[in-house]
Amino acid sequence: MAPGMKHYDAIILGAGAAGLMCAARAGQRGLRVAVLERAAKPGKKILISGGGRCNFTNLHAGPGNYLSANPHFAKSALARYTPADFIELVERHAIAWHEKTLGQLFCDGSAKAIVDMLIAECPDSVEVICDADVSAVVKDGETFAVSASGESYAAPALVIATGGPSIPRMGATGFAYDLARQFGLKVVEPRPALVPLTLGGEDVLFRELSGVSAPVRARAGAGSFDEAALFTHNGLSGPVILQVSSYWTPGSEVAVTFVPQEDAEWLVQMKRDRPRASVRAALREHLPDRLADALADRLGIERELGNVPDAALREAGARLAEWRFSPTGTEGFAKAEVTIGGISTGELSSRTMEAKRVPGLYAIGEAVDVTGWLGGYNFQWAWASGVACGESL
Ligand code: FDA
């Protein structure tokens, strides 16, 4: 080995959510661990997450809340480290938290408490080394040798925890994929997820509604969610659109149900109850005025309900229940909260996260082809995969 090379039991690349959790577990088992982080401080994405309060888990997190080429892969790690386990950790560190909505747990105070907690969980045998930009990794026999910012590190185990390329202005890159490919591991084509969608063509008229938000049901592919949609000057956003964006593929449609709490007969029923009312007025009872007016204009029914045939009202109800948008694309990695795709789960053991064909090489967190819904699910995967790996290094 080269002179000046520092030796460890394991080297973890990336001091993000998964890397820090993995380091803490491995360190607690007595391993000497180096965590190499390119940024000047650890956990940068944790610090900005959840609007600065970190939506650190979701009470309902289970395998069904994740997308992957192999939907079974995440089961083992998620079952062995659950939201209750992370809550226990947070409480042990006296971090106050609350449920915001839909099982989403946030810190009462700053997300920094989560980073501080993860660092505090690392015993003295763990060194978190910042400003260490990993440039090269080679495997020499059973040893991985890593070059980072002029220093050299060696260990028999190497963990890829460098995340995905979402939010490149924070320094995020596809480094994990390049490294995986270097060792012959397959990578599922990465694409932006939890990302706003752009509108063009006829849909472009909806961009006039920029700033308007309403609770809707949205569907794309196998994904269906009930949450708020937000019209933007580029197209569609808001939690429900971010959720379905993970299921949307270029060229396909997004179906939106306006007024999801009503059934297909609701306009006919309203005609019976209030024949003098208009479609516009009916919509205004459920939706912001600007959105109600835009939908009423497009439906083109201006008469009082009493003067509209039932069939036309049923047709309008059906259109409102299945309003089809054809997004032109997404706002890309620049705006994506996470990356879908990544290091193929087919290459990894679901128990240990070790590469089946490269002993000693592991991958965890967002770098792997496991992507959670919006709402704390992605951190839960980072914690669970980090623990699974940290316990088996
Ligand atoms: P993460 O990206 O956290 O860490 C990777 C680390 O590796 C980084 O510190 C990076 O600097 C380092 N690195 C990269 N290349 C390197 C190299 N070559 N050498 C050395 N180091 C390198 N999820 C959730 O569940 N709840 C939430 O509230 C939010 N909120 C949120 C907001 C925003 C704006 C974004 C962009 C994302 C979220 N997320 C989220 C998603 C969540 O942040 C994400 O899933 C996890 O941070 C993934 O954890 P990882 O440890 O895998 O990667």
Automatic annotation (TrEMBL):
Pfam families this protein is in? HI0933_like, HI0933_like_1st
Ranges of residues in domain RsdA/BaiN/AoA(So)-like Rossmann fold-like? 9-391
Q: What's the cofactor?
A: FAD
The answer to whether the entry has keyword Hydrolase is: no
Q: Which UniProt keywords apply?
A: FAD, Flavoprotein
Q: What InterPro entries would the database entry show?
A: BaiN-like, BaiN-like_dom_sf, FAD/NAD-bd_sf, RsdA/BaiN/AoA(So)-like_dom, RsdA/BaiN/AoA(So)_Rossmann
Segments forming a coiled coil: none
**KW Flavoprotein (keyword) present:** yes
Which Gene3D superfamilies does this one have? FAD/NAD(P)-binding domain, HI0933 insert domain-like, Translation factors
Record-given protein name? Membrane protein
What organism is the protein native to? Erythrobacter litoralis
